[in-house]
Amino acid sequence: MIQKLTETISVVFTESGFTSSNCMLVRDDIRLMIDSGAGKALAEADPGSIEVLLCSHHHLDHIGGNDLFARAVIKAHPLEKEAMRSCGKLLASDSWSELMDAENFLFSKTISGKPNRLHEPFRVDEDLAEGQVIDCGRTKITVMHTPGHTAGHCSFLFDDGIVFTGDICLTKVGPWYGDSDSDIDDFISSVNRIIDLRPRILVTGHLDGVLTENIGPTLAEYRDRVMKRDEKIFAYVKRNPSTIHELAKLHFIYPEHPTDFVLYWEKSILRNHLKRLIDRGEMCLGDNGRYFAARVERAAS
Ligand SMILES: [Zn+2]
What we know:
Bound molecules: zinc ion
Shape: globular
Number of domains: 2
Order of helices and strands: EEEEEHEHHHEEEEEEEHEHHHEE
Largest sheet: 7 strands, mixed
CATH architecture of the largest domain: 4-Layer Sandwich
Distance between the termini: 42 Å
Number of strands: 16
Radius of gyration: 20 Å
């Protein structure tokens, strides 16, 4: 479904769930889209007519339709380009064998006898850079490098106070920063940067509608879930030194693990919290693979 926000700016809302994402569509002197993962809804935007495609980041739910943009100049942040050549990165699962003790069958070179598309690199023609302005005519878009979810994740600020924040997604399941090069501190800084913008309208890759009210408090609550996860993990480990696999069974991140992917993300997000707690001197990793508290009380954050 396409929802018009202004004369030239629209949102393409996906109806295909979490393996897909919302995209932005600009119909101006230049026809432009941000992200291509809208699934079936993408056809309404006529991808073959689009001249410029901006990629918020490399995850497949955001770039899965890129091949349909045959005419478009495709742009992504340089830190995302290499990731677009990695099956594990595309599927947000770059430490699968380490954390799941098995190979992911979706990483194999062929699936059902056919070459696996994920082993073909995704085309990127030009780099996106912080502060760059994309001029579509009446519509101007400023690129914001908002890392944390991935290293080169970008958000996009339109000149009339509309911002598209990709996977700073504000969904109930909460912030995701489970790649090996995701960074929790960067994620928090990026959310704070969006809050400081005081946007008039906020669009994310995964909410069902646009946000027009309480945008600052909604972003702050979403950001603060990161600290709450830290506190829960620390409080448990202080009493019960544990391996990452033992911690994953406690569902600190996701209330359910309906698929191996969700279990993997529980572990990979936990791993990044544990890394951060170690960097802050609050936790240590023992020879037996168990994490334990390095001191009795946490310093104020
Ligand atoms: Zn993502």
